[in-house]
Amino acid sequence: MSPGMADGVRSSGISDEKISVIPNLADLELFSDENVNQTLQDEIIKKWHLENQFVISHIGAMGEANGLQYLLDACERLEKQNVTDIKFLIVGSGKTKPLLVSKSEKQNLQNIIFEDMIEKKDVPTFLDLADITITSFLPKPILATNSPNKFFDALAAGKPIIVNSAGWTKDIVEKYKIGYYVDARNPQELADLLLELKNQKAMLRGLKKEIKTIAETEFSAAKASTELLEILENVATEKGRK
Question: Which residue range or ranges hold the Glycosyl transferase family domain (predicted)?
Answer without folding.
Answer: 42-210
